[in-house]
## 1
Amino acid sequence: MGMVRALLSAATRGKVDELRQLVARSDAEVLGSVRTPKFDTAVHIAALHGHSRFVSEALSLNRELLVSRNSDGDTPLHLAARAGKERVARLLAGLAQGWTFDASSRDDGFQHPLEMENNAGDTPLHVAVRHRREPVALTLIEASPYSAFQLNDSMESPLHLAAREGLSYVVWKILGIATVEQRPSISDRGTPLHEAARGGHSFILMLLVQKRPELTELVDASGSTALHYAAERNEKRMVKILLRRSIFVALKRNNDLQSPLHVASSCGSTEAIMEILKQSAGIAERANALKCLLRYVQSEEVVNRADMDGNTPLHLAVKLGRPQMCLQLLRDQRINPCIVNKDGQTAGSILDTRIAHFVMLDPIFIPFAFLSLIAYNTKSIPSARGGKPKPLSKFLSQYVELRMGTYTLVSTLIATVTFSSLFTMPSGYDQQDGTAVLGHHAAFKVFVVANTLAMLSSIIIVAWSHWLTIISCVAMVVSVTTAVYLTVVAKSPLLAYLVIAMGCSTPVVVLVMLGKNVFATPA
């Protein structure tokens, strides 16, 4: 018992003279038989404390201690790597390089000392990188380049761990090795590129993308690419690097069917969102960017955030005349239409200016965007010129009065002319039975259909502009279809029925175009 205590004490303090005295009293075999409760030998203890002279002396007496294991499966090199003892690690690595197996050792499945795995499957290099011992890791890579690609039980190589811990020199050293993996190793946590993105190490990510571009589109167990994690962390630089390597990675969805843009939106990563939209404008359009932004952005501040000119998304949608965007924005209760930009304008006042100058970029802006804006007529919009706030419906009324007045007048004239022409048939009527003389002629049938279509189309415009005339318009449709039926049915029943069908479809067309807003159109 005294021998055990004395040997372990000498190893802890690094006393080489005491080691020699103890061995002289017995023999070198005592070094292998003396163990701690964790099954550490004297060499394990000396390596842990960084006593390189003691380790060198002990191994010169008993070479087999280099590959001895404790209860965790660690060799002395594992402990030196964990503690960051570079001198001991360099000594052990040098001795390991000269290690040779005999036939019996190979049959028993012994590994090379530099590649030996502990109970977790970690080599000494894994341990050094995991504990951020960069000098030791570089020493071990020089001694055994192959160990840089060894996988532990979690399917992680030292490259994975170095990328996760942000050890850029270690990553650079491994990537510079001529012999690399045949196929990229993918753990549940993904590739080394995933680890770099998850850890926010942009320089390491850039190195990996340059040397291992195939990692860009690989996914982890959740189906996420490195771009998903870069977007989640709001890392603008990493997003830019990844998208420059592969623009199509922006389309990849994870197991939750979320693209990187969805992830950035859900996390409120505004800089990442802007970079994704900038780098992949076409891709973002296909992904329905605005819709997913509104769905996943939780913060009200984000959806109302202004640009350098003070314009919110609603300002820009009105300026560009984008009806679908206006619809999506105005359906979101978090959108604030009262925000003023640096020019002192709200979205409503921009609309007011465009109405005054008869400027509208998109003709279909009327049926979509404006009818959606009506739903917000209870909200007051500050005037760009100060004074009493204007209700948003006021802007809509002005627009309808200025833009639809001419259309309504023209449509009314067309409806009047076409209605009267139905009763002034070409060649007149048969005096005996009151039917059209040319009722069987093909050109007459074309006239009836075209005339009816022109009149009904005009009625739709009139009804659109002034909803209080809907009843009279419906009555006009009934009278026209009835008149046509009476004059045409005797000689051309199918034509009469066609006109009736067209007339009945007119109210349906109005309802489809305006929906529930048909009665909300300003008079």
## 2
Amino acid sequence: MSLVPRCLLVLALLAPLLVQAAPAPWYYWRSLVDGQRVCAQTSPGPGWERDSAAYEGPGCQPRRKVLIVPMR
């Protein structure tokens, strides 16, 4: 096996490790017409503005807090 096919094989095997997708963050969106708020990952359409910072949990839920208790 020559060098070029080996390099292509290694590249094909390592490519999934380099390409990692993350879920889109959730935001509250406010209607410019009536002020109604909805939770969505993308804009519901024209006439909506983002009304909050990004949430990492699904459905605009804040990240769960983990309590760490030190051991003695």
## 3
Amino acid sequence: MKKYLIEFLKDIGIEPTFITVSFIFIGIIVLTAIVVHIILHKIILKSIKKVDRKRHNFITQSLLEYNLFQRLALVFQGLVVYWQTSIWVDKQSVFYEIFQIFSLIWISIFGLLSFYSIVDKSFKTLHNKTKTPFFAMQSVIQSIKLIFGIICFIYVISIVMDKSPVAILSGLGAMSAVLMLVFKDTILGFSAGLQLSTNKMVQVGDWIEMPKYGADGDIIDIGLNVVKVRNFDKTITTIPTYALVSDSFKNWQGMRESGGRRIKRAVLIDINSISFLSDEDIKRLEKANLLMPYLHTKQSEIKNYNESHNFDLSVAMNGRRLTNIGTLRAYLVTYLKNHPNINKDMTIMVRQLAPNEYGIPLEIYCFTATTVWIDYENIQSDIFDHIYSILKEFGIKPYQYG
């Protein structure tokens, strides 16, 4: 074919010099590549998209998703250039070597990208069918991509240097210490990824708290090297993947899955306001619906106990009596158990903590019936609004500095 073209040039009066012939051949190669590009991207690709819009079958979706068809088309264009070069360009020409190297590098790069697209599509299909945790698969995907990326890099270097890939690998073996240093995070990340996925420690969407790295929010991406966390102030924190294995962190996902979020807050009571309840106090508090059953039961119990021991009740220290703080505790427990937004299947407790210089902490310990942050804060605030408002009914004062 090349001879016929040279004879044609002579017939039309053009001297087939080296430069003239080379530029014509290069023009043919470039023109062919452009035509192939137009056919693949403007005609065939549009046809595939049109078919996909009508049928949505697996084959067309696979070709379009992750740009697989576009990348395969670019690989084909590289093959066309490589094939055309061997036909038109003289092997002793410098242009031949340039085009051959360029086309092989082109084919290698877009072949690797096509492989990446196939891997992504394959694992996505597997994930949808088997419901395998995405993080476990993502670590494998990234590891496969890394391995084949390194292989492709070595092959490209061997093409440029005109040496065997084996020779390049032997040279890299001598630099193993340097490579270990360069890929330290990747190796550690891969090892950590296997441990995290095997032990199901975290997954995308989990709320984690890791003060060492300033992370307090939801995981949005788990990679081979880093984990990205969107904090509640909308900032993004990146954490080395291996840090989730080597360091401690708090995963709040269990709280979300349980359906309840803990309230654990204390009201500081002024010790000087604690006292026994008088008969007038008891009569007044009996009017409270939530306290009436408790007071009736407790008064009967105390009366029987005191009578059985024949105590002289004119002395306050003798016998058993109702206290305002004890009655407050009983009221708060009943109040929480009857609260519509408190989870009744989880612990509900009101307890005294050790007194300190700020008074006696009366701790509320319970779980809301929701894990939504805004709702949780509203419920907690409503409960403590109520507590502070009813303290005076029991003759109790909250501690206030000064």
